[in-house]
Amino acid sequence: MKPIQRHAAASTFYHLAGCSLSDCACSGLACFAARADDAERWQRATRQVPPVYCVGKCYAGPSDAGHDTRPHIGVHGRRSVLLNNVLAGGVRDLASYRARGGGAARLKAQHLTPSQLIGLVEASGLRGRGGAGFPAGRKWQLTAEQRARVKYLVVNADEGDPGAFSDRFLLEDDPFCLLEAAAIAARAVGATKGYIYLRKEYPQAARVVSAALLEARAADWFGPSFDLELVMGEGSYLCGEETALLNALEGRRPEARLRPPQVTEQGLFGAPTLVHNVETLCAIPWIVNHGASAYAALGFSQSRGTKLLSLNSLFRRPGLYEVEFGVALSDVVERLGGGLRRGALKGLMVGGPLAGIVPPALLSTRLGYEEMQSIDCAVGHGGVIAFADDTSLLDIAAQVFRFGARESCGKCTPCHLGAPRLAELLHEAKNGGRIDRSDYTALVDALAATSLCGHGRGLAEFARSVQRHFGGEIEACFD
């Protein structure tokens, strides 16, 4: 595990630096939604310094580091791309991985040219699973065509959307799938060095991936021209933004960078860099083994393949599900989740705290990038948080902006100052105060138009989504 040599100015940024998480309680949005199920634990989470926003146990909220149960794991589609080894209870050593067919894609990829590998990914229709949905093959092509002596592959395992725990189980239960995918991607784009940047909140994943890396190197999986190292984060939601993550790897403050240039041109240490999240890369071995057309046959519309969904503890069957794109959100709630354990559904947050909230009237919407965008919501990382009617939209909005303000990197003024001000306004409204409409609208517009990265823009999109779908509750707070 590689330690980062950080610049002194970066040392104060990370709120979990030097902290033990062995006794922490989670104050993430999924745990907030379930706070009534264990009020004492939730109160401990809210009083905790520093706060921890997700420990990857959203299926058992409100959660903490000391308690865990294995969630329900299910596949609802024609084929499983990602969860076969997770369904088997985990495959954590190389011999077992090979016995189940693992490693075949890496060997097959060695007989394909880089351009053939890139063409395969392009033809599959795979899009990035981190939120933006950018075509993976296009990203590979942009990186491959750069002329540079050094290129990097970076695995973003720090996408800590409260409500999502899919990366945790892929890392803990199927680490060699990720390492195999990294070897294939590095060959395709010409990367000579790679890093897995893993969030501190997943200590078991760190142990499993570290052991898997040792086995993979001993088996010469990466060859003489590529190596992959694990780097641990120290607590920062913004490190899920790829340019902030690259700054963190360089030992600088993890603030968002201006773009262009894109990271495929000038990324880590100024070199061309391919950045993918865990779920995106874990689809690569299946695509190489089964072919682009088999993958593209799954899903619908412009969203091909499968998606992992993390269902929170308010469902009767919380857990991790692999679905084909195109499933209706009503099926996610009723068929997968079994409906809510208590209360009536207030709204469904899909894709993280910067996504909107789907009202019950729009649950016929099908899961797809463009389809979710059309209702001012998002696929995001696939965290599905159900809120019951014991939580008002004002409570949810205040919690989202409190989180957004706390996790702003501070690089740009609209987010650095605007997010805390919006959090303050919503907190006052919760306590009976009134919100000046013109001030609120101006702040949201500024976040949307001038934020440097998706954090500020996402907060604005969340605010607009709530106003669109739950206008009656929010309108009552305005002067």
Overview of the molecule:
- This protein has 479 residues and is an alpha/beta fold.
- Helices cover 41% and strands 12% of the residues.
- The protein contains 21 helices and twelve strands.
- It has helices spanning 29-33, 39-47, 84-87, 94-99, 104-109, 114-124, 136-144, 166-173, 175-189, 203-218, 242-249, 278-282, 284-290, 292-296, 329-336, 369-373, 393-407, 413-430, 437-450, 454-469, 471-475; strands at residues 72-76, 152-157, 193-198, 228-232, 273-277, 299-300, 303-304, 306-311, 319-324, 345-350, 357-358, 383-388.
- A six-stranded mixed sheet has the order 1-9-8-12-10-11.
- A hairpin with a 7-residue loop joins strand 8 (306-311) and strand 9 (319-324).
- The model has no long low-confidence stretch (mean pLDDT 94).
Shape: globular
Please describe the biggest sheet, giving its number of strands, its sense, and whether it closes into a barrel.
6 strands, mixed
Helix-strand category: alpha/beta
Strands across the major sheet, in which order? 1-9-8-12-10-11
Q: Total number of β-strand segments?
A: 12
Q: How far apart, in Å, are the first and last alpha carbons?
A: 54 Å
Supply the number of helical segments.
21
Overall pLDDT score? 94
Radius of gyration: 21 Å
Low-confidence runs: none
Helix content: 40-55%
Q: In percent, how much strand structure appears in the residues?
A: 5-15%
Oligomeric description of these chains: single chain
